[in-house]
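Render this sequence as a predicted structure.
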Amino acid sequence: MPIVLNGSGTVTGISAGGLPDGIIQAADLASGVGGKILQVIQTVKKDKTTIQSASLTDITGMSVTITPSSASSKVLIRYSLSVFTTSNGQYWAMRLVRGSDSTIFIGDQGSNSNQTRSSFGSYMSSYVDGRNITQELLDSPNTTSATTYKLQAHTPYSASYTIGINNSPQNDNYSYMSTMVSTITAMEVAA
């Protein structure tokens, strides 16, 4: 069917999906459409990672990169992280980072506490003591460049402690032990 432009300002003859990809940008949409999800990117981590460090360390496989279509868009980050410890009771902490900015999702309880640099911290008492941590943040990166969000973790009390992601850092082959999955998801939200 041919495309017809008529005098009333309407166009006929365009079938669903007939426009090329990318021809309509967020700025072309009518006002009042803010809050719509424009894209979703997810990373799924199924393997096991162990961390033994008093310094915050990137968690392998727990990062996601999104390229916003508009600088005014927000990015909704959701993550679910499964953490286990060794048989000795220990402290661990983590944080969400955007690029090299580690201040986007931290507490403000005191200049010397781990809460000022970590979005979650916990004490766990045994290797069967696991946690599934779920949090979300609506961020404003103010960019149309590729933006990476990642999770970091550490054992701030002692570098001799070990945490496991998705499974116990030890004794992980017992039939009663669970193998878990962790995810991090980025969603672009129209302004």
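Summary. The mean pLDDT is 82. The chain has no helices and twelve strands.
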